[in-house]
Write a structure and sequence with these properties.
This protein is mainly α and 270 residues long. It has 16 helices and no strands. The termini are far apart.
């Protein structure tokens, strides 16, 4: 019987020296922790060594978990991919987004697109080849898909409709969604008064000691929002510890508006 409580490190040790065929067995017949460690190990093989099992076994499986993992593998293959291989992977990921009925499979494919755009520093030319084919994702209001899009949007070229999609999902009640949306906004330098006002309003909805409250404060510092200054002052005056992200953003913000706060920060929290 497989131990469902195995740690990620133990799963890593179990998979690190296995052959492709043995890793495939782990993918097909193990729990989720071992499956993903086996998938990560497969990412260190060459594309041509693993594409047959991905295409002919994992992607054709009736189990959505296998198809989800197949898309996960394709997004982070460690060996350098050729242009032809990238195009093949794009075709597979787009097919999964368009045709697979599983939300988790679609989410995995979207995240993998983001990883590929990040790793290969892809831009306008490459995005235009897939843009129309992934247009359906902007209307998919599902938790895991929103997170995947928020991540990938950090590496897709700038688009007004992507910016509006991210702003819309700042209204989410899920902290993790808001966190990833902030990541996408920050990485792509999407800024506007509407974003600033929405985030200032949202501060009243969260506990001051919650991670999402701190992430919003840090983001507002990163865009030099004057409206966040009273909130920073309260943190500096009332808390004995300060969040690392807030500390870093305030320390590195050299604008005049934050000069006094920056000075106080460095005196209080050396």
């Amino acid at each position: 019987m497989v131990n469902d409580r195995i740690s990620s490190f133990d799963a890593f040790l179990e998979c690190k020296d296995l052959s492709i065929n043995d890793l495939l067995e782990k993918l097909l017949h193990s729990n989720s922790i071992i499956q993903y460690e086996a998938a990560k190990r497969l990412q260190f093989f060459q594309y041509k060594e693993i594409i047959d099992i991905i295409r002919n076994i994992l992607l054709t499986s009736r189990y959505s978990k296998h198809r989800e993992i197949a898309n996960f593998i394709l997004g982070q293959i460690q060996e350098e991919l050729s242009t032809t291989e990238l195009k093949e992977i794009f075709s597979i990921l787009i097919y999964s987004i368009q045709s697979d009925k599983s939300i988790k499979v679609k989410s995995s494919a979207i995240s993998s697109l983001g990883h590929l755009f990040k790793k290969y520093n892809l831009g306008e030319e490459e995005f235009r080849t897939i843009e129309n084919n992934i247009s359906s994702i902007w209307n998919m209001n599902r938790y895991s898909i929103i997170i995947s899009i928020a991540f990938s949007s950090a590496y897709f070229p700038k688009r007004n409709y992507i910016k509006e999609y991210l702003i819309k999902n700042l209204n989410s009640k899920h902290h993790k969604i808001i966190s990833w949306v902030l990541y996408g906004l920050k990485e792509k330098h999407y800024e506007s008064e509407s974003i600033e006002n929405l985030l200032i309003h949202k501060l009243s909805q969260f506990n001051e000691k919650s991670y999402i409250y701190n992430e919003i404060i840090a983001f507002l510092i990163s865009i030099s929002s004057k409206k966040v200054i009273p909130y920073i002052e309260k943190i500096l005056f009332t808390q004995s510890k300060i969040d690392d992200e807030i500390y870093t953003e305030l320390k590195n913000n050299l604008s005049d508006e934050f000069a006094e706060l920056r000075k106080q920060l460095l005196e209080e929290f050396k």
